[in-house]
Each structure stands twice: as structure tokens, then as C-alpha cells.
Amino acid sequence: MSKSIRAGALTGTALALTVSAVLTACGGGDTTSSDTKAQKAAKGTPGAGAATVEEPLVATFDGGLYILDGETLKLATTIELPGFNRVNPAGDDSHVFVSTDSGFRVLDAAGQTLTDITYDGAKPGHVVRHAGKTVLFTDGTGEVNVLDPADLAAGDKPEGRTHTSAEPHHGVAIELSNGELLSTVGTEEKRTGAHVLDRNDKEIARNENCPGVHGEAAARGEAVAVGCEDGILIYKDGEFTKVDAPDDYGRIGNQAGSDTSPVLLGDYKTDPDAELERPTRVSLIDTETAELRLVDLGTSYSFRSLGRGPHGEALVLGTDGALHVIDPDTGRVEKKIPVVGTWQEPLDWQQPRPTLFVRDHTAYVSEPGTRELHAVDIESGEKVTSVTLPKSTNELSGVVAGH
User: How far apart are the first and last CA of the chain?
Assistant: First the structure.
């Protein structure tokens, strides 16, 4: 069963407007590249008996990876890995997935070494963590791999569930706590929506009223949403609900969720013809009421700007250099924390720009222009520590356990 809801007028602050839909060319990234012949080259990678890096962070740079101590930001290891690489938490306290041109590779960030665990396939895309499982979507093949990140500690490739999409596309998938698998539907030319499979891979729900489907996030109560070019599609309690955008084109392409809040944070774009739209509004989607609210920040941001705080705070790193902390229930911007200098999103999505990564009470923010990385206490607004790295970084991630 599906139902469609037009976002209606809501009352709120001057910053908050009712809406639906959002953003960018591609938060999950359409392509990746690296020199597979050099994948095992590791400059300064320690051997057996090396000290464990506590709560490691991983930052990419042109030619490799930096592994840093999450508390001190001290650079622990530099690993050579040519090409454009992407990084995502694997879901435990040690590992990070690295997307290369040949597939997903597992990095033991705590142990400071690339492992031999790989998930081969062209155009590795989204990595989703939810309900104790991590799901990989390979765009070039349409293959979905579900694994228990706790099994990575054994050093061997975990056994897990697999599913192959009807056709390859830039997609995303997530497994719910009851074993249902939500996965996007589409082709290389056109993405239309999502369907849900039971534990036996039998389709139990489908909705193709979500053009340009992109990105996902989960809210409190295990409501899962994927973004559309004209709103957002929510799956909850066995039912799809489409919330239409107030604009004919209102794209929500990237979202951030929190287990402590029923409200999702999304981006929002309204110009389908723009080479690169730099929006100043973000969307807040209440998955319990199916209402959408827009918040104007007065500054633009990028697809690497969205995050959630420890209490469900909606966090947006603006091009004004500040971390905007938003109350997701009211849409009120509670504070602006200065972190980096002013910046502008580059036209090429693969090019470096300040990036936000949130873990517990700390927001980590990269500043490629100065080669710096900053750690900020979200609640106090204080910059705890900073470090200057040898090269400018691009992507920023780290280990995140207990999802």
C-alpha cells in the first residue's frame, strides 16, 4: 500500500518553511578510480605488533590515505593508494571501507593496514550501516552485499546475504532489523523508486513514484527514506509513503538520520538545469507526520556538509565556515560554530572541499585550503584540537561502532 501527501503549510520560525525534496549531483559518488596495480603499496604501514590506533579517522588525499588518532588527531600512518578513493565506516571499532575503481576494499584502520578482504565490482557506491548490518551497493553490477561488520575481525571475508538488482544503476540498499531489504529500482539511464524484499528475496512492496531516487537515511522507529527529484519516499511499517515537494522540481539527494529523532535532515535543490546549484535551504522530514519543512541557512553547503549530533541535532557545515546546529523539531538554528574559513563548492564533485564527519559528541571538519583537520565539541562549540597534514585531504571518515 502506498499513499501520497502534498507538503502543506506549517507554522514555525522565519527560517522554517514547509516542503519536501533536495540536492546534489551525487553524494554517494557515481565513479571512483585507483591504480589497482598499486593497491597494496603502503608507505609507512606498520608490521605485526604495531600499536593500535584509538578511534581512528581516515582521510583521503591525492595518492593515498591518512590514518589519524581520533582524540589527538596525530597522524599515525600514511598508506599509498593512487587514484580517487572514497571512505565509509564499516560498522565496527576497527574497519573502514575504501571504494576504489575495482570495488570495495577493507581497511583495518585501528591496525593501520589494508586487508585482503575485497568486494570486487565496477563503480562501488553507497555503504549503509543499520541495525547491526552493513550493506554495500555496487553501481556497475547492481550487486548488493549484506554483512555483519563484527565478522571482519576474523580477517576473512564475511559470509552474508547477496542480491542482484534487475539492472545496474547508481543505487543504495538497507537491511531492516526484521530482515527486510529495501533496495532502489532503476537503470543506468533512469532511476524510478524502491522495492522491499523479505528474508527469502520475495518482493513484498514496491513504489516507483520517486524519479531520480538517490541516497537513504533511517530515523527513530526504523522509518527509512530515499530521496526523489520531487520529494521523498518513506518506508515504515510495511508501507511506502510519498511526500511530494512544494516545488515541481525539489530534489532531496542526500539525507542524514538519527536513532534519537523521527526527523531526517536532507539537502534541497530546485533548479534542474543548473550546472551546479548552491542551495541555501535544507529540508527536515518528519517521518511520523510525513511533513517537510525547509530551513534557510543564509549560506550554501555541499553534499559533504550534512551530519547529526549525539542528541539528534541537525548539523550543516556552511560555506560561511560555520557549523550550523539546528533543532530538528522546530527548524530553529540554535547556534553557529565557526570552524573553517569561507569556501565555495567546486564544480567537480570529486574535488576537495571542507567535509564534515560526526562521531558521538565530536564534529571533525577538514579544511583542504590550509591542509588542516579540526575537532569540535558539538555541545560546547569549542574547537578541541587541530592538526596540519602533509597534503590537502578530500574525503573524511572513521570507525563507527554500535550502529
Answer: 29
